[in-house]
Write a structure and sequence with these properties.
Elements: H1 11-20, H2 22-35, H3 37-46, H4 48-51, H5 59-72, H6 101-110, H7 119-137, H8 152-174, H9 189-208, H10 213-230, H11 234-250, H12 253-269, H13 271-288, H14 298-312, H15 316-339, H16 343-347, H17 352-367, H18 378-391, H19 398-415, H20 422-431, H21 456-459, H22 462-482, H23 489-492, H24 494-506, H25 510-534, H26 544-557, H27 560-581, H28 583-586, H29 617-645
Helix pairs in contact: 1-2, 2-3, 6-8, 7-8, 7-9, 9-10, 9-11, 10-12, 11-12, 11-13, 12-13, 13-14, 14-17, 15-18, 17-19, 18-19, 19-22, 20-22, 20-24, 22-25, 24-25
Length: 673
């Protein structure tokens, strides 16, 4: 038999055999691993597909594998934050977990207060709000929440839905239609407690991340509505108060007012637990933010002081401990400054924080004068203020003296307590020599409202003396007017009258003596009036009730000094308003004489003879008459034109202009009482 010679195998044959016999391929790879393990390791690292050789069972199996791979690589929901996702086709099926505008409108209808709001709807809306907050606060925008809020319009719709409808929905669910009912006593409160805490925390996060005044106003109004629920949780209340106190002290005017209303309402709901903390933090914040005083910061400081008086007046028994402690601290600072004569100790007293603290406690004692809790602190406070004036009684600290006098004057008036103030004012007239010549000239008088100490250079200006005389005159007039109905007014003002007369003799400046002479005449006129009225009295001075009744009667009738002070104060207020509005600048420039301008084409007339440096008055008058006639002709033409152009102005109709309403309705007084 003839044996057939084997054909040499080619590379194509080998490939075809290996494709048909994958088992042989695996055996050869196994042998390779034993023979040359280093090369096999190289193949594992660089050609993994060669080693992971799968046996294909047929075309059907391969088709199944292809289908499975296609299922695995299907595109998922887009996570890009674009506005296009907000305006999707409503007929298309929504992606699971993604919030759309249609879904927001459906939830909004379910939150309507006319029907019964369900717990599932509230929980869902709170989850959506949480998803919006996570999306807004996370760095990469990713979140593992159940819902996904994508796009600015959807985010705004979710926030608007919660701000407008959630407060009424919570009240509807808990049955809080009756005003003044405690939410914790409602039977459904335990069911909604956990989601409510989550929502309030997210709301505070949103409030912390907002800087726009308009958005802050809307959120603070919403927080004010939710304050009845915030008061149910002590921890959330502390977080809210911390943020609100910051806004109360540093925000814009509207923001400050809304923040204070929310603080007041939250504190009232948990007064026993939160009042101590609120009083401490608010007072320290007030002292911290009253360090620098200027015309721009005065309104904010005054608002903080008045609102603090309201907070301390909530419970005077609790407030007494803190007021006593803080007044004692002021007294310790003053004692150290008196005993240790050093600049550091003096600066601890002569600063705006110390003066504003005195102002606060004086306003509080004056506001609560009809209650007896804080009245024992009146005497130590007055002693601190008077000794503050006496600490450094130099000319540089006249502004501080005037501020302290104003504080005591208001305190005396509101508490109906006599405080001897005239000596501290008249002493200015006798201690400074107003007749000496000034070294510098200033156009405007100094304003003492925002300063406590004057520089030495300012003492040598004429504006210093003008301002001191004006301020002393105003304070003496107000102080004597407040005491003008006292039965002892002639005796009280006797020393002040003598010192004013001494000043009139020693001062040669007519502007200063004219004012003081007018004030002296009014004081003496009022003293004669009181002497005439008390000459008719039949009771003795020891009968305090009869004396008080007589003084009240005289005050009701009116005294000459009171009528003069009222008229003067009206004129003074008008002058202050003019300074604030700067009417002199608004009035415009003074009229000027206009000369006829020679046109460029027209040649100037040649002047013969020598040039006249100073022309005669007759020539100027002739030119002025010519210009005046030309101006009259122009004015006649303008009047004719204005008469023709005068037509009835049609009322502008704003029918086409959409009215922009506030997102949250304005509050009434009943909302926070």
């Amino acid at each position: 038999m003839k044996t057939e010679k084997k054909k040499p195998t080619t590379e194509a044959d080998v490939d075809s055999d290996e494709e048909l016999n994958p088992e042989k391929h695996k055996e050869s790879l196994g042998k390779l691993k034993k023979i040359d393990p280093d090369f096999y390791q190289f193949l594992e690292q660089n050609d993994d597909n060669l080693l992971n050789f799968d046996i294909e069972t047929g075309d059907e199996d391969s088709e199944k594998d292809d289908d499975e791979q296609e299922k695995v690589h299907l595109p998922g929901p887009l996570t890009m934050d674009s506005d296009e996702s907000d305006f999707e086709d409503e007929t298309a099926k929504p992606v699971s977990g993604k919030v759309t505008l249609k879904m927001v409108s459906q939830w909004q209808n379910k939150l309507h207060p006319e029907g019964n709001v369900k717990r599932t709807t509230l929980v869902t809306v709170i989850k959506v709000f949480n998803a919006a907050m996570v999306r807004a606060t996370s760095d990469d925008g990713s979140s593992t929440a159940e819902y996904k809020v994508e796009g600015s319009s959807v985010f705004n719709a979710v926030i608007q839905m919660c701000v407008l409808h959630l407060p009424s929905a919570f009240k509807n669910y808990l049955g809080l239609e009756q005003a003044g009912k405690d939410p914790q006593k409602c039977k459904n409160f335990s069911k909604i407690k956990a989601p409510l805490v989550t929502y309030l925390k997210d709301l505070l996060k949103l409030l912390s991340g907002v800087s726009s005044v308009n958005i802050l106003t809307v959120l603070l109004k919403h927080l004010h509505q939710m304050s009845i629920f915030i008061g149910c949780f002590t921890r959330v209340s502390k977080l809210a108060l911390k943020k609100l106190i910051t806004l109360w002290s540093t925000g814009e005017e509207t923001v400050r007012v809304l923040a204070f209303l929310s603080i007041l309402r939250i504190t009232r709901n948990q007064q026993t637990a939160l009042l101590d903390l609120v009083l401490k933090v608010m007072y320290m914040t007030y002292v911290k933010n009253s360090k620098f005083v200027s015309p721009s910061t005065w309104p904010g400081i005054n608002f903080m002081r008045r609102s603090l008086v309201e907070m301390f007046a909530l419970d005077l028994n609790v407030s007494y401990q803190y007021v006593f402690l803080y007044i004692r601290q002021l007294a310790i600072h003053l004692r150290n400054a008196i005993v240790v004569q050093k600049v550091e100790n003096r600066q601890a007293v002569y600063n705006w924080q110390f003066i504003n603290s005195l102002h606060l406690w004086a306003d509080l004692i004056a506001a609560t004068s009809n209650k007896a809790q804080l009245q024992p602190l009146l005497y130590p406070l007055v002693m601190i203020i008077t000794n503050t004036i006496k600490l450094v009684p130099t000319h540089q600290y006249y502004p501080l003296r005037f501020h302290c006098t104003e504080i005591m004057m208001n305190l005396s008036k509101e508490t109906n307590t006599f405080i001897p103030l005239l000596p501290y004012l008249v002493d200015v007239l006798t201690s400074y020599d107003f007749s000496k010549k000034h070294k510098k000239v200033s156009m405007k008088p100094l304003d003492f409202s925002c300063i406590l100490r004057l520089a030495k250079s300012q003492l040598s200006e004429n504006g210093f003396k003008d301002s001191v005389i004006d301020r002393v005159y105003a304070l003496l007039l107000e102080c004597s007017a407040n005491q003008s109905h006292y039965i002892a007014f002639p005796d009280i003002t006797l020393l002040a009258v003598l010192q004013i007369k001494q000043f009139l003799k020693s001062c040669p400046v007519a502007n200063y003596t004219k004012k003081m002479k007018q004030l002296l005449d009014k004081i003496e006129e009022n003293a004669k009036f009181i002497e005439h009225e008390r000459s008719k009295v039949s009771f003795s001075l020891s009968e305090e009730k009869m004396v008080a009744a007589w003084e009240a009667n005289i005050k009701a009738k009116g005294t000459p000094l009171i009528t003069f002070y009222e008229n003067w104060s009206k004129i003074n207020k008008i002058q202050k308003r003019k300074k604030i509005t700067k009417n002199d600048e608004i009035a415009g420039e003074l009229p000027m004489i206009k000369r006829r301008k020679i046109p460029e084409n027209e040649e100037a007339p040649e002047k013969k003879g020598p040039m006249v440096l100073f022309p005669s008055d007759s020539e100027d008058n002739d030119n002025f008459k010519i210009d005046e006639e030309q101006e009259k002709a122009k004015t006649k033409k303008l009047k004719k034109k204005t008469k023709k152009s005068k037509k009835p102005i049609a009322n502008i109709q704003n029918d086409n202009i959409p009215e922009i309403e506030d997102v949250v309705e304005d509050f009434s007084v009943k909302d926070w009482k």
